[in-house]
Amino acid sequence: MTALRKLTPHAVLALGAIVMLFPFYWMVLTSIRSPAEVFDVSFWPIPKSFDAVENYSQAAGQVPMARFMLNGVIVCLGILVMQVLTAVPAAYALAKLRFPGRRLLLSLVIAALCVPIQALALPLFVGLAKADLLNTYFAMMAPFFLSVFAIFLFHQSFRSYPNEIIEAARLDGFSELEICWRLVLRGSLPSLAAFTVFSLVAHWNDLYWPMIVVSDTNLAPPPLGMLFFADVETGANYGALMAGATLITAPMLVCFLLVRRHFIAGITMTGVK
Amino acid sequence: MTAVPTNMTLPVKPGVASSNSRDRRMMRNGLMFSAPAVFLLLAIYILPMLLLAVFSVTDYQLGALSIRFIGLENFIKAFHDAVFLRALSNTVLYAALVIPFGVFLALGVALLVHGTKRSRAFWEVAYFLPVTATLVAMATVWQFLLHPSLGPVNAAIKWLGFEPVSFLSNPSLLIPTMALIGIWQVLGFNMVLFLAGLTAISKDLYEAARLDGAKSSLDRFLTVTWPMLGPTTMFVIVTTSISAFKVFETVAVLTKGRSGSETLLFALYLEGFEYSNTGYAAALTLIFLAIVLVLSIGQTLHLDRKVHY
Amino acid sequence: MSSQAIDLRNIRKRFGPDEVLKGIDLSIRPGEFLSLVGMSGCGKSTLLRIIAGLESPDQGAVAIGGGEVTNVDPSDRNLAMVFQSYALYPHMSVRENIATPLRMRRLPMSARLPVVGGLFGTSKIRNAITEDVERAAGMLQIGHLLDRKPSQLSGGQRQRVALARAIVRSPAAFLMDEPLSNLDAKLRAHMREELVALHRRLGATFVYVTHDQIEALTMSDRIALMSEGRIEQLGTPDELYRQPATLTVARFIGSPSINLLPVDVDSAGEISAYGQALGLRTKGDTGPATLGLRSEDLFIATDGLSLHQGLAVKVLRSETHGADRYMTCQLLADPTVRLTVRQTATAKPGVASDGTVHLGFHAERAHLFGANDLRRPLTVRERVLA
């Protein structure tokens, strides 16, 4: 009776987990199967003939998969660096400095939190088109150079930094920039880590904006590349398609499994913080 | 930190002047530090919002030579536009499926996971994995899973002795199928939010409830868990509805809007970026924004000061 | 129905490698106020939780009112518990908090459901509940707070709500887990009196867990003093103070702490400290032992006769607390031994100019503990020091 009561939740969770994980299983399994086996629809985990090399090389050869991944890295890192560079000083100023317009800026930041990028896409697109900047890395990154969420998050975190230490550092001759970057930010490393995860995951997985400003295959980040790839393939070779999907999903999944705590904190911090 | 001498031991300056110059320096620093953010806020948020408002009352088309003020015509047109209305009702249907299942299944999973001890980390990973995965890639995988002849889902359905289901060709199943993927993706996210809420409930309350006579777990759930999770549940519902109204990737991969399966954002994308009906798309964007704003004001209030009893 | 006896037989409990309860036998009489007292980690809270049914013992049996309940769910034991954190439901008003135990017991499941619950014809029961809630609230003088939420109450008020939730029905016994430890000192003293009055008025069985010996001494009918998973002594506050069964009990009970003097027992049973005969005798083992002397049983020997026979000490410090004066003395024979002497503040200190005095003690109130910490018999051979 008690054993049953203990096992039932695990059984239910296991059943659910199978559904949750089945797409991953099928994706990886198909990516190492031969085309003939794909048509058999067998659930057996060990393929009869191991076609991983063919599938993955086809995914890498038919479409520039490596290029997509590189684009993803460039775009994600570019965005992250700019977000941190702009948000940290602003958050520090909002949290620890007094200057005219401080309250207005804070209100604007909070108001901007409510506005999704999809709402701004149209005018930003028109602006970039007029400036002849479509199909550039800059176009893919520019709308995200400012993260109001980062400002908000760092502002919350910086506020709890003791004023006495800042005062003392000023008297010790630290410049305001040093105080901001070397003292205060160091006290908020968990927030920085969480935001890094949040930003990288969001932009690695984003499709909407790249789809709007990029039509050049050579500039496509992974999700857009995947979309091109799926269109090109039209169902002919699922092994290669799944190999491509595996390649695109793998970086985030591996990072997630490596730093699970940070990932969950980073992705859900919009909710829990 | 090192012990620092107070102002007293510094070279003596007239007090007022020194505090003035310090204030001025702080002000200058504040303005300098926030200048990049202010500039970007203007360029990315404020100016585009103004432009959007202007576009929405014109017949502007990207590349067109002339531009004409047409008042609220775009908005009136939107509510007579069959495609837009269909997209709107599709999105509402999608949200109506994703919100209850995405929220309450997640609550159920969170309750079960919360009750486990050693295996908790494993279940967290298993259910959270879809959240991290690139949705475009996973939508492609789902397309394959649901394939009428090659997909394992239909193979299983046939094996059980039922007729195969054409998830991705029967028009009336398109939105529910996408909702299924939406639920699959959002479940782990919501589960983690609920788990955080559950962990915050004091064990004493459950024990007090047991001594107060709450014998069954349903009684304890109704007396303690459900009311204590109230703010979390509210928040999860709001976040889930916002993300449901932004559904885009699954449409882009699975249907591209065929058979009348457009969602709000996809219709908007087509009008604005494929057909270049900038003015009309601006009006649609404002409608979309209004929906999201109503939903996210609740979210921002929660972010700003956590709801507490 | 109310005021039942609670019987514990050979209760054992282990958390991982630590055995926190090592075979507890305890009979709590109906209607008595029994305190479980001891240092943190002695197992007193675990024992209370086993009585409540929140933990189950690895071995042994719990009986309430003669009926065995070892495997009975806490909700069916008819016990009320007051938690250290009060454990008030934060989303409920004070009224709903107090009503919860009644709603759970008197209303059927269907009527307790949110929203639809009100549709069931249970207004008679509901009215009875309202009456009982108001009676309990009146008893604790919180009638005016019934519509507030716990977050709008002070610590003392929350405490009263927790008590009202306990007394609103007539449980077999009240279990209290350090209920006063979150209150400030003044309020704590006041609530002690109120709890005693409440106990008298209800005539119910109270099992009260505390680490504060003053609470235990002032409130209880009997005290079970626990240490390392065992009951060291069970008795009235007076017995624990005047006849401590072990050195642990003697150390724990009393403020300031009992003075401990290392002594020797020779083959004749004579007791001496640092070679000085104390005029006391015991039976049994020879060798080192400990003599316990309460501060009020020590005095400064002023008359000429005993002056040279007392314990020679140097006064280090003298503090007056209202009516009492406490003098901290250092034994000349062994400077590591400190003795505290309590005098009335009006008495003459009687200290020589170099600070040296001789201490006498009331021999019949001295306590002797053997090397195994157990109390040993003591007879006064000669009242040399008093």
Characterization of this structure:
Chain C: Keywords: ATP-binding, Cell membrane, Membrane, Nucleotide-binding, Translocase, Transport. Chain C: Residues 6-253 form the ABC transporter domain. Chain C: It comes from Ferranicluibacter rubi. Chain C: InterPro entries: AAA+_ATPase, ABC_transporter-like_ATP-bd, ABC_transporter-like_CS, ABC_transpr_MalK-like, ABC_transpr_MalK/UgpC-like, Mo/tungstate-bd_C_term_dom, P-loop_NTPase, Transp-assoc_OB_typ2. The complex is a heterotrimer of chains A (273), B (309) and C (386). With 273 residues, chain A is mostly helical. Chain A has 15 helices and no strands. Chain A folds into two domains: 2-59, no CATH class; 64-233, MetI-like fold (Orthogonal Bundle), CATH 1.10.3720.10. Chain A has helices at residues 2-31, 35-40, 52-62, 65-96, 102-113, 117-130, 137-141, 148-159, 163-171, 176-184, 189-205, 208-213, 222-233, 238-258, 260-272. In chain A, helix 4 packs antiparallel against helix 11. Chain B is an all-alpha fold. Chain B has two domains: 13-56; 76-304, Orthogonal Bundle (MetI-like fold), CATH 1.10.3720. Chain B has 13 helices and no strands. Chain B has helices at 15-56, 73-78, 82-115, 120-132, 135-145, 152-159, 171-199, 203-211, 217-228, 230-245, 249-254, 264-274, 278-304. In chain B, helix 4 packs across helix 7 and helix 7 (171-199) packs antiparallel against helix 10 (230-245). Mean pLDDT of chain B is 85; it is low at 1-17 and 305-309. Chain C starts with 5 loop residues before the first strand and ends in a 6-residue tail after the last strand. In chain C, helix 2 packs across helix 4 (123-139) and helix 2 packs parallel to helix 5. The mean pLDDT of chain C is 87. Chain C has 386 residues and is α+β, with helices and mostly antiparallel strands. Chains in contact: A-B, B-C. The interface between A and B is large, with 104 and 98 residues.
